[in-house]
TrEMBL record:
SUPFAM superfamilies: Periplasmic binding protein-like II. Residues 1-23 form the signal peptide. Pfam families: SBP_bac_3. This is Amino acid ABC transporter substrate-binding protein (PAAT family). Keywords: Signal, Transport. The lineage of its organism: Bacteria, Bacillati, Actinomycetota, Actinomycetes, Mycobacteriales. Residues 33-257 form the Solute-binding protein family 3/N-terminal domain. Belongs to the bacterial solute-binding protein 3 family. It comes from the Bacteria. One of its GO terms (biological process) is amino acid transport.
Length: 273
């Protein structure tokens, strides 16, 4: 009697496990799905239009995902606003973040990083026919636009007290103001500037000055302490660089602005710890 009960219980467990596997979200592959945090509102880097996701960060994420064994259709794209990136990783809402995410010591106290996969720098966007602005030193008396509360704007303000800083709610508003001659320049990371300048409606009208004056090391955010995933992602980044896919992604997403990656690119990923 006891033997029959044990056998029945074992059969029930076996059946439950089988049904669970058949009904799993990943089709039973056990880990092929990947939740990836990106920006949804940065042209050339991470942009969501309908069901389409484009940009350099998106291409980097797709390449890494493929090397991790995840097909593009199995990627779930999650919006990752700057202020929420650490929380998204700490709470497990995403598996990794590729969203102009600079590697810093303070962030490494909460999350892990693979990479960097790109070295960006703060720069200036100006009208294509304006040769008077060549860097921060030439901004005295000029109208400089940035986003409200941006550290980029404050950096320039500290360097050039005579600049006329005008803060808008979004970078898109700054770009529109630049095109309409309401401001003289826009400042943030050179990649973000190139992304806006590469948009169809602005091609030929704007240019990145090309004199970066800070260093931003874009990394892939992951859960703190996940050394194995860090090493896998670093290897994917190295392969993307070596097989030419990295150059192609830069050109296709940012090349229309005449953008050339600055010193240190393409980078060698840091050792995982």
């Amino acid at each position: 009697m006891n033997i029959r009960r044990i056998g029945a219980a074992a059969a029930a467990v076996s059946l439950a496990l089988g049904l669970s596997a058949c009904g799993s979200d990943d089709g039973g592959d056990g880990g092929n799905q990947l939740k990836v945090g990106i920006k949804f509102d940065q042209p050339g880097l991470g942009l969501k239009e309908g069901n389409e996701y484009t940009g350099f960060d998106v291409d980097v994420a797709r390449y890494i995902a493929e090397k991790l064994g995840t097909a593009e259709d199995d990627i779930e794209w999650i919006q990752a606003p700057s202020a929420q990136r650490e929380t998204l990783l700490e709470t497990g809402q995403v598996d990794m973040i590729v969203a102009t995410y600079s590697i810093t010591d303070s962030r490494k106290e909460k999350v892990g990083f693979a990479g960097p996969y790109f070295i960006a720098g703060q720069d200036l966007l100006v009208r294509a026919d304006d040769d008077s602005i060549t860097g921060p030193d030439s901004l005295d008396g000029k109208r400089l636009c940035s986003v409200t509360g941006s550290t980029s704007a404050q950096t320039v303000k500290e360097q050039v007290p005579g600049v006329n800083l005008q803060e808008f709610g979004t970078y898109s508003e700054c770009v529109s103001a630049l095109v309409s001659n309401a401001v003289d320049a826009l400042t943030t990371d050179d990649t973000i500037l190139a992304g806006y300048a590469s948009q169809d409606q602005y091609q030929g009208q704007l240019k990145v000055v090309g004199a970066p004056f800070t260093e931003e090391r874009y990394g892939v955010g992951i859960a703190k302490g996940d050394t194995e995933k860090c090493e896998q992602i670093n290897e994917a980044i190295r392969e993307m660089i070596s097989d030419g896919s990295w150059d192609t992604a830069v050109e296709e997403n940012l090349g229309a602005a005449g953008f050339t990656p600055g010193e240190g690119n393409p980078p060698e990923p840091d050792a995982c710890a």
